[in-house]
Amino acid sequence: MKFIPNILSSFRIFFSLFLIYLNPKKLLFIFIYIICGISDVLDGLIARKFNVTSKLGAKLDSIADIIMIFVILFKFVPTMVLNLFMILWFVVIFFIKIGCIFIVFFRFKEFGMVHTYMNKLTGILIFIYPVLNFFIDCKTYIFMIFIVASLTAIEEILIDLTMDSLDLDRKFYFNIK
């Protein structure tokens, strides 16, 4: 049981990369994409349920999340109709998120991304997009993702700049213990 979460994250990395070669308007893409999403949920649940969390597991999960996000961006951003404001907004969010990775690395000499509730919410909204886009046009939904992603990026950079020690499982900025 100890290695199952890491195996699931590793499979998610592999299958996410495989998605690059598939057409997002085909059912095979959606099927594999949903499997990736299920594995994302299961790896964390299993790790916590059986108390087999690890730094390696957290890093694999973060790497799998990053790859999954880049695949979604690679497959869907070219198909989106975004005005200049939305493009600039996207670039700002992107650079804040990249900045967060560098801040953690330079402050704590480790790779990591904080797993806040807002990051999870953003991840869920982004995850839903390709499935929803399979059926309908999602212009308003994209705007909602941008708003939530902006708040998430601001929260994450505040956490990264102010935490005393690296805590990748911090749930929100105003951490109540």
From TrEMBL:
Which branch of life, at top level? Answer: Bacteria
Q: Does the keyword Electron transport apply?
A: no
**Which parts of the chain are coiled coil?**
none
Provide the alphabetized UniProt keywords.
Membrane, Transferase, Transmembrane, Transmembrane helix
Q: Entry's InterPro entries?
A: CDP-OH_P_trans, CDP_ALCOHOL_P_TRANSF_CS
Classification via Pfam families:
CDP-OH_P_transf
Q: What are the transmembrane regions?
A: 58-78, 84-105, 117-136, 142-161
Family per similarity comment: Belongs to the CDP-alcohol phosphatidyltransferase class-I family.
Please state what the protein is called: CDP-alcohol phosphatidyltransferase family protein
Give the species: Intestinibacter bartlettii
